[in-house]
Amino acid sequence: MKQIPLLLSGEHHCSYLDQKSSQSAFVHPDILLRTDIYAQLITQGFRRSGDEVYTPYCKNCSACVSVRVPVKDFKPNRNQKRCSNKHLNTQVVVKPAKFEQAHYDMYLRYQDSRHTDGPMAEASPEDYINFLSSSWCDTLFIEFSIDNELAAIAVVDQFKNAWSAVYTFFDPKFCDYSLGVYAVLWQIKNCILLNKEFLYLGFWIEKCRKMNYKTDYQPLELLINKHWQRF
Q: In b/e form, how buried is each residue of 108-126, taking b as 16+ CB within 10 angstroms?
């Protein structure tokens, strides 16, 4: 892959670690991205947010570590097995990444319950779909329904040998169902069925409670000094 020009963002408050500032390097907007190009970039620690592809580029901090699950080696722990059993009757429908009012309404309820002080709690329909979907990436919306009622959406990017878990949100009324865990387990299972090699889980941050759960999925590979290593 040819060298891709990057643009460096300004510094801003880190949303994951207190007393830290954050900075990112973005793929230059003049670059015409495709799923196959992004498939190579994600192996180098990049992530997608809408049509933008970025990687952390913070001075004196390397807390954000890209992680992935080698799905065929995955071994669920006791809690994950219990979660899977709880969802034996959960219905799953795979859809294209298109705007649906029911999805958007649930997204707002989720943000209002989890991130009331963040900008996503007031996201417009355009903000919502531009954040989760992409004009160039092969993306799916996975619907999870409990007793025929929409309960959660998992957003997944597809590559030739991998999937990337982009985002998961759920209806707060189903908060006792561990839908975030089940969404990851479902993705791992279907990666295996589709003969994929990896499920990318984004960034692991050891000292951030909402990001360090990813080590629950074992074995896990971490991108350290540009090399993937088993955790």
A: bbbbeeeeeeeebbebeee
pLDDT category at 121 given cuts 50, 70, 90 is: low
How do residues 182-201 score in pLDDT, each as one tens digit? 999 999 999 999 999 999 99
Each domain of the chain, given as residue ranges in start order, spans 6-66, 68-203+213-230
pTM across the whole model: 0.95
Give the H/E segment covering residue 49. strand 47-49
Give Rg (Cα) of the chain.
17
| Tokens standing for residue 218 | 């074992």
Homologous superfamily assigned to 68-203+213-230: Gcn5-related N-acetyltransferase (GNAT) (3.40.630.30)
